Amino acid sequence: MSNNFYAMLSRMKYINRWGLMNNTRQENIAEHSLEVALLAHALVTISNTRFGTNLNADRVAVMAIFHDASEIITGDLPTPVKYYNEEIRKSYKQIENISERKILSMLPDDLKPSYEPLIDETKADSELEIYVKAADKLSALIKCLSELSMGNKEFVKAERTIREALDEMTLPALNVFVEEFLPAYTLTLDEMS
Known about the structure:
By secondary structure, the chain is an all-alpha fold.
């Protein structure tokens, strides 16, 4: 019997993000998931070090790797469509849940318990999930900053909207990251060296 789970996950590299936007550089969900994992790990590390939490940074990074796995089946539905109204948002959430179950069904039964909390959003670690969500938004902001630095005005409104969403999050580690680390994302390689 063939188990398709890992081969299906490898298809993340074929799903492009920002489908309605004119991009100077395409970004796929595999790249995005790696960046979200790095950022989520950073946020939890900052939280543990500076704010005395005792959270698992390695676990949040793994959660972030899988956070968009359902998009292998659904594709990346653009945010303006996904959140156009409450009915569409609810319907899309149901589609995501079906996609998550479909992906999990590709695993042998003995491996499913290890992956369910990573792929099935309803079984995720809620204490760490906020860090994944913050990292996901940070990754989107970094994409906007990159596009804007290339002169692509297509991302002006997205950058403003994402910053507003990040400002609404009450996560001290996020504030530290935005203040101390985000500015470096606008530097050139020579400026960083």
